[in-house]
Structure prediction request, 175 residues.
Amino acid sequence: MKKEIDLYLISGFLGAGKTTFLQKLLQALPDKKIGVIINEFGSLGIDGMLVEKEGIQLVEINNGSIFCACLKGGFVKTLIGFSKEEIDILLIENSGMADPSNMHLLLQEMESMVSRSNEDSKFRPYQYRGAVCITDSVTFLRHVQVLAPVQNQIATSNFIVINKVDLVNQVTIEK
Prediction:
């Protein structure tokens, strides 16, 4: 059986600290072969330049959310491409506006596409390890009330990081 690739999703609203978290994570895993997908909602990819580092395979997907119909096909093809690479871990930083609640469905769709195409000789399956949501303690309470993507990022996460706690008081952190 082919060795699975551990897949982690990093979510959080705009400016929450996803890219900084990703940079720290990459520094903490120097001996691992890592692939990175960065999703930018806008047309300009800035985070990819911040993350690029020797030995990291990086793909940027811009102009929308990877979970939306407009980019879903490209995202699935990118996942298939990474599955044929010699990596141990794939980290996905989704756009701050993304709703990652259909991640499991996308992985099922990808596996179905691979099995139908008979191109699975190099394909290695993913082991989805879960989602980490980075929350900005300064703006989170305002955004979660009105933005469905923020609500779904929290609801579908396995681990939540409350970031920027030095900028708020204890009452805000507890809320």
User: Anything to note?
Assistant: The helical segments are 18-28, 47-51, 69-83, 103-117, 140-146, 148-155, 170-174. The mean pLDDT is 87. The first strand starts at residue 5 and ends at 11. Strands lie at 5-11, 34-39, 56-61, 89-93, 126-136, 159-163.
